[in-house]
Design goal:
The complex is a heterodimer of chains A (about 375) and B (about 400). Chain A has about 375 residues and is mainly alpha-helical. Chain A is built from 15 helices and no strands. Chain A folds into 2 domains: about 40 residues, no CATH class; about 280 residues, MetI-like fold (Orthogonal Bundle), CATH 1.10.3720. Chain A is about 65% helix and about 0% strand. In chain B, a hairpin with a 2-residue loop joins strand 1 and strand 2. The chains are: A mainly alpha (about 375), B mainly alpha (about 400).
């Protein structure tokens, strides 16, 4: 082993190694193969390049150079948006974001208590990061989730530890979006596992129930479920019993997400080789031991990337509660421009709100792509 | 054939075990669990149902679908069939269904075209093309559709009013009331020409099939395109000529505060269509890309070794194989587009959800209204699934 260096190929004496020609390596070669490899490719590159540069310059002009970042506020609290209106679309009026960002992020939550929803958002992000770490992919996640969600509830409602009580009607903005998505997930995920198991069960009645549930929910749009929650649900309950609107929407979202997640989990269950089931049976494990100890740990691991993709879809779908009038991030943005002095600055507000959604979804999608390539490592050559 | 080789012992059914009434018997446990679950769910449903019946009585809300025959009195801005507020609720809901189908069908076609182009572009050898498509897909998929719809609608509403309407091409007016275009005054001759066109497509298809059968028999390729042009373009033109060649254009013109005449694409419809198409195209692009990547590299190389050009390789060798991977997720994207068209209610396009929602607010019959929405979407979803499953079975790998 040690004499391996002795067998290295002999170096030819006299001719120093020449570097490859610049048409084969280096930036010029890269340009030629990737941008200008033929007349068609060159034409496409030039046209697209021109359009991209025009678009980027136009955007920079609009968003930064011609933009107005703040406007004076009259003593009566009315913002003086005259300067913004004079731009007539040639520049962005970021003043609407400067002025209204607290409202868009936290809704009508009492102003001096805004640190509470802000802390809640940070807690949510921390919870996501912890759940994303492979080290925590075991039962310790359950107490972590329960603990964090309880802390979030205490922070939002208050009434304990000297925090003033804030009724749910005053919550709004980003915390509502995160609450709908996270609580929805926390309840829909266990539900989806049960439904997926039920759909593959040998008991006919349970199987039929699960199939009916999944197919019915997947066949109708989320809006119809949200309408059901907002106008039909009060009819279902006995007189005098009332559930608030946010919780009703949350139930609709859980039922909706449960059906979609169940199909993802079922795919994982189906992908597991039959030998695993048979081996567990041969060990004499009961159904729940087999499922909890052998099947689920393997099946769930393989479907984590599609699960994350479903979460992304589901995070975006929480914005649909706008239609039944729940005050989430998008609704808060839309409400911010109802005020007469800010009317007509919708684009700026949607860019701001959109960038928040983008940050969350982009992080999740990069994470899922990374996991996927990690799980497929054995297939790569 | 294989029957003779199977060991007869394996074909014997296991003996039936008598049912023992004990918790140790798996079948007994199964039956007990099923009774418990079905009983629990059934009693919850029964409880909700009895509450509902009681509440409906207390609040004096009528039940049943009798309201469908009453006068609707709700105005609808755009409709494919004749409609005015004196018509019945049934007709109003029918208009809603047609509006949903209008946006869904056009959306599916456009999203498929755009998505396929972007999916192929993402695999382009040109760095700029590939990166731009990747950027498009990433951004469009990470923003909520509702936000995108509101964004497009805001942009379209920011257009100048009818009096200062933009005129990109002679006769086409862009304003915050929508896009006005010149329209053909429709007559029977045009309907006949359309029928002739459809007949032309069918005949071309039959002709192409026959040509292929002949090529299979003697190996000689046959030109299909002259017959195709004659059948699909010539036949309608001929029909139209025979019927008197009517050609009268209805030009839009500004009268008072708005345009008269011509064809209009409302800003609501345009915003919904743009939003749905660009959003769904992002997902379809990924499906197409994954499908093309799933075809083994050796297939490309073998086809190139046969001397086929790049386009022919893609069309004849790669796409037929990629389609098998593409079709199932494509189906769910089509279903998603159709279901997402229900977001129309947020920007005021009157689709079935919007009209059913107004109906249930006017009549107070929430259960019937939502049942109608769900029934409509379930039947649309089911039809798309059936069609796509049929197509999937048709292109599936034929195995022995």
């Amino acid at each position: 082993m040690s004499d391996i260096t002795a067998n290295s190929p002999p170096v030819a004496a006299g001719s120093p190694p020449r570097s490859a020609p610049i048409t084969a390596v280096g930036p010029i070669a890269w340009l030629r193969t990737n941008l200008f490899s033929g007349w068609l490719s060159t034409a496409v590159t030039l046209v697209l390049g021109y359009l991209v540069i025009r678009a980027v310059m136009g955007f920079v002009d609009w968003a930064f150079i011609n933009a107005i970042w703040s406007v004076p506020v009259a003593p009566n609290g009315q913002a003086q948006t005259q300067a913004c209106r004079e731009l007539q679309g040639s520049g962005a009026c970021w003043a609407v974001v400067t002025e209204k960002h607290r409202f868009m992020l936290f809704g009508t939550y009492p102003y001096e208590q805004h640190w509470r929803p802000a802390l809640v958002c940070i807690l949510f992000v921390a919870l996501y990061i912890v759940s994303a770490l492979k080290r925590f992919w075991n039962w310790t996640l359950v107490p972590i989730w329960i603990g964090t969600l309880t802390a979030i509830g205490v922070l939002m409602w208050g009434g304990l530890f000297g925090l003033p009580y804030v009724p749910q009607e005053r919550w709004g903005g980003l915390p509502i979006t995160l609450i709908l998505a996270t609580f929805g997930l926390a309840f829909a995920f266990p539900l989806s596992i049960l439904v997926a198991l039920g759909r593959r069960s040998s008991l006919p009645a349970i199987k039929v129930l699960c199939i009916l549930y999944v197919e019915l929910i997947r066949g109708v749009p989320l809006i119809s479920l949200l309408f059901m929650a907002s106008v039909m649900f009060p009819l279902f309950l006995p007189e005098g019993m009332n559930i608030d609107k946010l919780l009703r929407a949350q139930i609709a979202i859980i039922l909706f997400a449960g059906a979609y997640l169940a199909e993802v989990v079922r795919a994982g269950l189906q992908a597991l080789p039959k030998g695993q089931y048979e081996a567990a049976d041969a060990m004499g494990l009961s159904y729940w031991q087999k499922t909890g100890l052998i099947i689920l740990p393997q099946a769930l691991r393989t479907v984590i990337p599609p699960l994350v993709n479903t979460f992304i879809g589901f995070f975006k779908d929480t914005s649909l509660v706008l239609i039944i009038g729940i005050f989430d991030l998008l609704t808060a943005g839309k409400t911010a421009i109802v005020e007469p002095s800010w009317q007509g600055f919708g684009i700026e507000v949607y860019v701001f709100v959109g960038s928040i959604y983008l940050v969350f979804c982009f992080a999740m999608s990069k994470y899922s792509a990374g996991l996927e390539s990690d799980l497929n490592r054995h297939r790569r050559r | 054939m294989s029957d003779t080789t199977v060991d007869p012992r394996y074909r014997r059914k296991p003996p039936k075990r008598p049912l023992r009434l004990s918790w140790a018997d798996e079948r007994v446990r199964g039956i007990v669990w099923q009774i418990l679950v079905v009983g629990a769910i059934g009693s919850v449903i029964w409880w909700l149902w009895s509450n509902t019946v009681h509440n409906l009585e207390v609040r004096r809300i009528a039940t049943g679908f009798g309201f469908l025959n009453r006068e609707a009195g709700l105005p609808i801005a755009e409709s494919l069939i004749e409609y005015d507020p004196t018509h019945t609720y049934f007709r109003a809901l029918l208009v809603g269904v047609l509006n949903t189908l209008k946006v869904a069908v056009v959306g599916i076609v456009l999203a498929t075209i755009l998505g396929t182009l972007i999916g192929i572009a993402r695999l382009s050898k040109n760095y700029l093309v590939a990166k731009l498509s990747a950027f498009y897909v990433e951004v469009i998929r990470d923003l909520p559709l509702l936000l995108q719809l509101l964004f497009w609608y805001t942009i379209l509403q920011g257009l100048p009013g009818p009096r200062q309407a933009l005129q990109p091409i002679e006769g086409v007016f862009l304003s915050n009331r929508g896009m006005k275009m010149p329209a053909l005054v429709w007559e029977n001759a045009h309907t006949a020409a359309m029928v002739a066109f459809v007949a032309g497509i069918v005949l071309t298809w039959l002709y192409a099939r026959q040509a292929r059968a002949k090529q299979m028999a003697d190996g000689q390729p046959r030109k299909v395109w002259p017959a195709a042009v004659a059948l699909m373009a010539g036949l309608p033109v001929l029909t139209w000529q025979v019927m008197g060649a009517p050609w009268e254009i209805d030009w839009p013109a500004l009268r008072g505060f708005n345009f008269r005449g011509g064809m209009n694409i409302s800003p609501e419809y345009a915003a919904l269509l743009i939003g749905l198409v660009t959003y769904t195209a992002g997902f379809i692009a990924e499906v197409v890309r994954a499908g093309i990547l799933s075809v083994n590299q050796g297939q490309w190389e073998a086809a190139q070794a046969l001397g086929l050009r790049h386009g022919s390789v893609l069309r004849l060798i790669v796409m037929p194989q990629a389609l098998r991977v593409i079709i199932p997720p494509m189906t769910s994207n089509y279903l998603n587009l159709t279901k997402n068209s229900s977001l129309a209610v947020a920007i005021g396009y009157q689709d079935i959800v919007s009209i059913a929602n107004t109906t249930l607010n006017q009549t107070g019959q929430a259960i019937e209204g939502i049942a109608i929405i769900m029934a409509v979407y379930l039947s649309i979803s089911l039809s798309i699934s059936l069609f796509m499953n049929w197509y999937n079975a048709k292109i599936a790998l034929v195995e022995r």
